[in-house]
TrEMBL record:
This is Hexosyltransferase. Signal peptide: none annotated. It is an enzyme of class 2 (transferase). It holds the Pfam family Galactosyl_T. Its EC number is 2.4.1.-.
Length: 351
């Protein structure tokens, strides 16, 4: 009897051991399938990412890691967002929410990048001069627009405000502006001693308003040959920083009674020259004559950015020349810009 009981217990233990082994085997099999499936899925993901990278970059067999691939894809997503923001910015510019847009005084957006923006520096009491310029070369109304659209030449009279804001001088300019729509009215006092600051402000504001190849300063008693100007400037478009004009280096006068007195004469040498009865000291640095000169867009933007730091001297042409002394600028001494002597092919002439 005892032998039978022992045999039954052994059989029961063997049966339970087999069940346990079977369960363990089944669990191990399922675990193997699970791990293999995850590994296969990861491998498929890696292959997909590499194929996508190959398709985008065209590099063929790639040895870039998955982490690097994910970074590249993330960068491309950021690039898409940046492109969308740039489109929004362009739309905002068209709506007038930014200052640096190629817009006219009436708010219209120009589709063509201007070749040159000409600022004709004028003052109160010079309407006859302005009318003569409109008739001779600048045009007005539809003719002014045609010059801008077909030749890319934008021309504006540049003037400040009266010291007595809102007086008859200001009102006369406002009336003329409403009629002709060809002014840049600066927020500064119109005075002879402020001419260098006036030129500086013109270049700065013009660079903010129009994205042109060149910017020109002209006096309101100068006739401009538009065709010759356009041809000359086109020949210099390959130069990034260019300063064009009738270059000179005049005397620096230290006597306050002299017409061309320079209060900062001491910066240019000794007080008086032994050979001059006018009290002339050394000569100015090389600069373009103030009747008319042209600077490239890069230099105009330099003036716009640094306008609060730029020093001015007694004369606007000397001041402009001083701004470019420390820069890598291509000086072009162009005889066609010597307005005092009219010759065949000349760009300007005093009237």
């Amino acid at each position: 009897m005892q032998s039978k009981g022992s045999s039954s217990m052994v059989s029961s233990m063997v049966f339970r051991t087999r069940i346990s082994s079977l369960l363990i085997s089944m669990f191990a099999t399922f675990a193997s399938f699970y791990v293999a499936g995850r590994l296969w899925q990861d491998a498929e993901n890696r292959v997909y990412l590499i194929k996508e990278l190959d398709r985008i970059t065209g590099l063929g067999q790639s040895a870039i890691s998955v982490d690097d691939t994910l970074k590249i894809i993330a960068c491309r997503e950021q690039h898409k967002k940046l492109s969308a923001l740039e489109m929004d910015l362009a739309a905002a510019r068209q709506e007038g929410f930014t200052s640096k847009t190629s817009s006219d005084t009436d708010g219209a957006v120009s589709k063509r990048r201007p070749l040159v923006v000409i600022g004709v520096l004028t003052r109160f009491g010079r309407k006859n001069n302005r009318d003569a310029i409109r008739k001779a070369w600048m045009g007005s109304g539809a003719t002014l627009k045609k010059l801008e659209n077909e030749k890319g030449i934008v021309s504006r009279f540049v003037i400040g405000r009266s010291a007595n804001r809102g007086d008859s001088l200001d009102r006369s300019i406002d009336d003329e502006y409403r009629q002709m729509n060809d002014f840049m009215i600066l927020d500064q006092v119109e005075a002879p001693g402020e001419l260098p600051k006036k030129a500086e402000m013109f270049f700065a504001l013009a660079a903010d308003r129009w994205d042109a190849e060149f910017y020109a300063k002209v006096n309101d008693d100068v006739y401009v040959n538009i065709d010759a100007l356009g041809a000359t400037l086109t020949s210099h478009m390959d130069k990034r920083r260019v300063y064009i004009g009738c270059m000179k280096s005049g005397e620096v006068f230290s006597e306050p009674s002299h017409k061309w007195y320079e209060p900062d004469w001491w910066k240019f040498g000794d007080k008086k020259s032994m050979n001059s009865s006018f009290g002339a000291s050394n000569r100015y640095f090389r600069h373009a004559s103030g009747e008319m000169y042209v600077i490239s867009g890069a230099l105009a933007k330099f003036i716009s950015i640094n306008r609060s730091l730029l020093r001015t001297y007694a004369h606007d042409d000397v001041s402009a020349g001083s701004w470019f002394l420390g820069l890598d600028v291509n000086y072009v001494d162009e005889g066609k810009f010597c307005c005092s002597s009219w010759s065949t092919g000349a760009i300007c002439s005093g009237v």
